[in-house]
Amino acid sequence: MRKVVLGQTGLEVTKTSFGALPIQRLSVDEAVTLVRKAYEKGINYFDTARAYTDSEKKLGIAFEGLRGSVVISSKSAALTADKFERDLETSLEMLKTDYIDILQFHNPPFVPVPGGKDGLYDAALKAKADGRIRHIGITQHSVERAEFIVESGLYETLQYPFNHLATEREVAVMRRCAEKDMGFIGMKAMSGGLFPDARVPFAYIDQFPHVVPIWGMQRVSELEQLTALDANPPVIDDELAAKIAEDRRELAISFCRGCGYCLPCPAGIPINNANRMTQLITRSPWEPYVTPEWQANMARIEDCIHCGACAKRCPYELKPYETLPGHLAFYREFVRTHVKPASV
Question: What's the whole-model pTM score?
């Protein structure tokens, strides 16, 4: 597997790395088997978070006795120093380790700084000084905060959504990280499942040697595909250039990334997927999204009270309450024409 030095951390990590959010959906045995198989194939960097339910616990089981051979990053969504400390201790316990290579603030609504009233950055410095974390990183969905983070010099890594739909402003953030020797970790390379062909984002991201994408994996087939791409990286030929252009035409202007920061919805609408349902059922296997449960979920759109809470929380300044009805109309017509009525 090809490796990259992750900025000033000095950590040599695999260019193709493992995002451990999806293993929440697997049993312990399934998750441990998949993670170990990834390790056996040469992947040495695994990214998780305190918020990913039992993901840390599964990684801890998988890497017991192998800790020195892998790089692990985790995240805390804490907004106070006390909560950060509790998260860190829990993460260490779940991961069965006495240190975390990179501890990242998990998409905070502000940028923690030394001496801040929240105490977060100072708590991280203390944990670094006593050896419980090796490097301080941060994740973001706000390009404005990402720009400030890169220029601040306070962080060793930035994790930010990055694929072939990146705007010029986002590409500039990525390039600035290289100039500042700051590790750039790309999340949502597949944009939450909207891209059926991994070659497209893989080829685009691979143009940038310092970018380390963490690919969310929950199936052996996904692991096999991505490691095969790493062994024989695709180049952007006419075919892939056309696919990139098509994705940009259809998705780049304004689309829901599925991050879920709009939630919870007071009407119970699963906004993070409902607001991109048209893309999900036309660009990926649609059967999982037309079950009776999902039909009931989509029907909740009619209960929207237009409170605007989702728009206030959206890091991409989308207004789901304006676009959800269109997704519902498309969805119902799709179900009517593609799904056989249940037998009576």
Answer: 0.85
